């Protein structure tokens, strides 16, 4: 394994026999090393494939500011989250998570904790990511002795969401999360109910809202092909229709998106299911 770039005494960019570029980490691993030298593989504590050409430059810049211990901690958290979520996470998460954890520790030390406005939504709609992020905070406290606030659980969970291989970016993730929360609140306050979040109907409802928000933000809403279904459901579930119109009234000015009759019909069906069960328990 040959060195192609030395970041600092503990981190280097290498190339293996298959010409694969890999970031390797370990105490003193690159001390007094230069380009072309071989790495002592016994000193490698962590390693991962460099995802892009620009990754090395960004990592080099980050290492000027962030302690080695935080970088190692971030890699351990990513390894934990990969197992917990049973999915591959983008290697770019290493940069964003290291930077976030380092900044969060500094902010807390300076008495400047930041509130996460999406704490409730993340906790309710992304339970797996939230649980993994909770473990991440426990790992941070165990390594640093610093207990970060619960708001940071939501922030780290959002980083996990954004790093999923099928993710479409943090901005879209944040918008989708906001939509989940707002639509759920509209239904909750319209009917004056609290949801049983363990119920199958609630799970179906959230899945529909998530899929709808994803397609809406990508401009992939279905065409009106079931106008008859819309009229039928509208007549059969008038209360759900009234609630769905509130959802439509929220989405149109907020996201400049008009729901089709198909979407209105499916929303009415799911809203009826989730509200009927809660009102009749």
From TrEMBL:
Molecular function (GO) terms for this protein are: RNA binding
Q: What is this protein called?
A: Beta-glucoside operon transcriptional antiterminator
Q: Which Pfam families match?
A: CAT_RBD, PRD
Question: Would you kindly state one Gene Ontology biological process term found in this protein's UniProt entry?
Answer: regulation of DNA-templated transcription
Zinc-finger is among the record's keywords: no
TM segment ranges:
none
Q: Which superkingdom does the taxonomy of this entry point to?
A: Bacteria
Domain PRD, residue spans: 65-170, 171-281
Q: Which SUPFAM superfamilies match?
A: PTS-regulatory domain, PRD, SacY-like RNA-binding domain
What is the scientific name of the source organism? Answer: Oceanobacillus polygoni
Q: Which UniProt keywords apply?
A: Repeat
Keyword Repeat assigned: yes
């Amino acid at each position: 394994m040959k060195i192609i770039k030395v970041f600092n005494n503990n981190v280097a960019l290498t190339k293996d026999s298959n010409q694969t570029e890999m970031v390797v980490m370990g105490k003193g691993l690159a001390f007094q090393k230069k380009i072309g030298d071989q790495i002592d593989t016994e000193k490698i504590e962590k390693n991962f494939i460099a995802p892009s050409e620009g990754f090395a430059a960004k990592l080099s810049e980050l290492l000027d500011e962030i302690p080695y211990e935080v970088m190692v901690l971030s890699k351990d958290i990513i390894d934990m989250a990969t197992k917990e979520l049973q999915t591959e996470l983008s290697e770019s998460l290493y940069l964003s998570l290291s930077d976030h954890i380092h900044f969060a520790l500094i902010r807390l030390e300076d008495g400047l904790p930041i509130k996460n406005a999406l704490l409730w939504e993340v906790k309710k709609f992304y339970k797996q990511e939230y649980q993994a992020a909770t473990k991440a905070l426990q790992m941070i406290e165990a390594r640093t002795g610093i207990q970060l606030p619960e708001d940071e659980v939501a922030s780290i969970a959002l980083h996990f969401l954004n790093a999923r291989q099928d993710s479409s970016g943090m901005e879209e993730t944040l918008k989708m999360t906001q939509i989940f929360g707002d639509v759920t609140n509209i239904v909750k306050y319209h009917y004056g109910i609290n949801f049983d979040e363990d119920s199958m109907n609630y799970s179906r409802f959230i899945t529909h809202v998530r899929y709808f928000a994803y397609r809406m933000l990508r401009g992939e809403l279905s065409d009106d092909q079931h106008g008859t279904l819309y009229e039928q459901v509208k007549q059969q579930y008038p209360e759900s229709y009234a609630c769905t119109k509130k959802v439509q009234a929220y989405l149109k000015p907020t996201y400049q998106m008009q729901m089709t009759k198909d979407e209105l019909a499916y929303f009415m069906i799911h809203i009826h299911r989730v509200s009927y069960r809660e009102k009749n328990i």
